[in-house]
Please model this.
Amino acid sequence: MHELGITRNIVSICGERAGGRRVSRVQLEIGRLSAVMPDAIRFCFDVVSQGSVVEGARLEIIEVAGLGRCRGCGASIALASSSRRCPVCQSLDVELLAGDELTIKEMETV
Amino acid sequence: MCTTCGCSEFEGATVSNLDTGEVASLASDRQNHGRLRESSKHRHLRSDDPGHPHEHSSDHSHTHDHGHPHGHDHVHGGEGAGDQHSHTHEHRSREADPNGPPGSVPPDGLRGAVGAMSALRKDHTPELISLEARILEKNDRLAERNRRWFRSRNICALNIVSSPGSGKTTLLTRTIRDRGAGAEMTVIEGDQATVNDARRIQEAGGRAVQINTGSGCHLEAEMVARGLLELAPGAGSYVLIENVGNLVCPALFDLGEQAKVAVLSVTEGTDKPAKYPHMFRAASLMIVNKIDLAPYVDFDVNTCIALAREVNPHIEVIQVSATRGDGLDRWYSWLQKQQRGQSGEARS
Model:
């Protein structure tokens, strides 16, 4: 349940950057390969934000699919969390292009 | 939140120094304000002067995350006549407490995180703020500080991860008894509860601190920094960090280690590297432990290794029995190679 600690980080970072204003919306980007579950973040967010300037803010989560590029044959590959084998040339030398995101993209204050 | 390091909240987390018997709370005053006022001093590891930690009281960064009315009087109506009284509650919040300690006002940037709702600024129009902030930035920053500190002292730090019961502690006690590392080896033990593992290290002749994470499922960089203060490992030594038994969360939290070592025992499933790809991808070495039991269990070593290499083509593999001793010479060689790598890196 590392999502609880991660959500605390989210609320803390947003609060620091809000400069004393209420936060009305927070947008996160969470990659499907990041080992963080968006639903668990949503679950924790309301609880963790209580009493802070982030309380009541709308939480938007953009889930990013795993994407890689084979260094062997150059193919673009949809990546799942387990194997990163290139389906074209079977190489395991695959560069991760997207899917491990764990960022706060933006937020809105009122 | 501590404004020196940004210490976060580690509810119920403690660090135990078995040499001194001292047990300190790792939790910030966020959860404990009003109760830990006197005792919640904490110390910081400084990269420039690790042997001389500075100490400061947590009062200076007292955090409120709930809004109290301040200095209110209220009346209790008792059963009998004439026992009404009033008294004043003092809720100390930085915004409303002019008598607070001098350090109690945080930098402006932190006000928002902790401000009581009543102190919100209302003179602003809606604003879109682009952050692009990494959520684990704080842990990563503290991990990098640990890493610099290790490098400055030629210390080889390894993060040992596994499921519960794979034999991490047995591997470490055996390594200490055999003096397999060829240099001083101290241990930071991470468990949710008990100091049992640190005690086992001590009984084997090693020095250890125990970090109990309470509700936490992994160690974080700040906990390790706190453990290092207690351990004060010597230059050129090894620090082995035995993480909480868990193959998920510890993969996300950098501790400042030189490498992660994933321990897997043959009494677990053959396909564990495929089931927990994050951890095996992050590890430099996979130790297959309890290899003496392989003939008695349904575990295919070669398939397990193939699955590990499927998620991490570069992972090294050593098969050992920490109790019987099989393969330990290879583990000790690997350890010593890591220390040389550390020294080489530090020189360059």
In short: Chain A is about 25% helix and 35% strand.
